[in-house]
């Protein structure tokens, strides 16, 4: 029951923010042009600040389990490769294909990871999850830029693809964050405070924009793509990654941390990235909403099964 309550406690604030966005839409408080402009703010300003803050807050002393890191990173890369092979066979539209591939491997590990580990093991065991987040979230962003840049539509030249990747705001923010982290550079306190405050805006604003732009009547148009990508995110990817982890003998807090990485719903930033990089943002918003709703029973079942078999 606690795991079900946990899922609800994590998911409901996200859904409420989406409902706020729907209220904005119904009250006609902003038009489509304004929503697109605001989403550009999220993608080019607020999300990079969030990523920079997350990297800078990493405690390098906790990154002490290379085998777990290698397993998690390998799982993400394999999921991305599987999505790249399978999803283009389901939809002929490159803009949809990129979003579907991203949904296969990219999860909301930051928002779900800490609460899940904290509930089961307490604050003392949060270091493992922090370690995974420090490595996997930047990997999510790098892969997402590569995938979405590759599936913008048409045949992009390699030079154009490389330019799009290295000039992406999230890649630049990651590079700056890693530079400051490894060199020990400390930002001027007022500047660090501004970047921190801007980073806190990204998730709530992205969800409100998602809700304001969400059109329920268009869900039927993407039925096939939604079934494929949401089932990949909540069923097939976690089944493969967590099943293999169990076979390899991974147990306890390490297994729960992998659960947060592989079984969480779509990342909130996936919608903003899809919109900002010319992919199908409508499909991204629908995938985020449905995976967030359906993750409540799936996460509950994972935790219940693991506890019943004594794995956690």
TrEMBL record:
InterPro entries: Mem_transp_PIN-like (IPR004776), Na+/solute_symporter_sf (IPR038770). GO terms for cellular component: plasma membrane. It is found in: Cell membrane. The keyword Transmembrane helix applies. The keyword Membrane applies. GO terms for biological process: transmembrane transport. The chain crosses the membrane at residues 6-24, 45-62, 68-87, 99-121, 127-148, 169-188, 194-214, 235-263, 283-306. It is a multi-pass membrane protein. Gene3D superfamilies: 1.20.1530.20. Keywords: Cell membrane, Membrane, Transmembrane, Transmembrane helix, Transport. Pfam families: Mem_trans. Belongs to the auxin efflux carrier (TC 2.A.69) family. This is AEC family transporter. The lineage of its organism: Bacteria, Bacillati, Bacillota, Erysipelotrichia, Erysipelotrichales.
């Amino acid at each position: 029951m606690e795991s079900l309550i946990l899922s609800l406690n994590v998911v409901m604030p996200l859904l409420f923010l989406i409902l706020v966005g729907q209220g904005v839409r119904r009250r006609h408080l902003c038009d489509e042009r304004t929503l697109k402009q605001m989403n550009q703010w999220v993608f080019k300003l607020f999300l990079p600040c969030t990523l920079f803050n997350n990297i800078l807050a990493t405690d390098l002393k906790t990154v002490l389990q290379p085998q777990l890191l290698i397993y998690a990173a390998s799982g993400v890369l394999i999921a991305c490769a599987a999505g790249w092979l399978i999803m283009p066979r389901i939809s002929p539209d490159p803009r949809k294909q990129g979003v579907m591939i991203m949904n296969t491997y990219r999860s909301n590990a930051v928002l779900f990871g800490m609460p899940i580990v904290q509930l089961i093991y307490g604050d003392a065991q949060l270091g493992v999850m922090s370690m995974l987040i420090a490595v996997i979230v930047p990997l999510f962003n790098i892969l997402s830029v590569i995938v979405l840049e590759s599936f913008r539509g048409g045949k992009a030249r390699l030079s154009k693809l490389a330019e799009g990747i290295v000039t992406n705001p999230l890649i630049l923010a990651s590079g700056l964050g890693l530079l400051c982290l490894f060199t020990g550079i400390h930002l001027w306190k007022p500047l660090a405070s501004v970047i921190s405050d801007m980073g806190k805006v990204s998730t709530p604003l992205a969800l409100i924009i998602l809700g304001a732009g969400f059109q329920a009547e268009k869900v039927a148009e993407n039925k096939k793509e939604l079934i494929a990508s949401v089932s990949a995110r909540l069923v097939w990817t976690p089944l493969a990654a967590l099943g293999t982890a169990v076979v390899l003998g991974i147990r306890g807090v390490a297994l729960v941390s992998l659960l947060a990485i592989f079984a969480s719903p779509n990342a909130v930033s996936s919608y903003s990235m899809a919109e900002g990089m010319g992919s199908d943002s409508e499909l991204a918003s629908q995938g985020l909403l449905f995976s967030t709703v359906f993750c409540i029973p799936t996460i509950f079942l994972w935790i219940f099964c693991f506890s019943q078999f004594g794995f956690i």
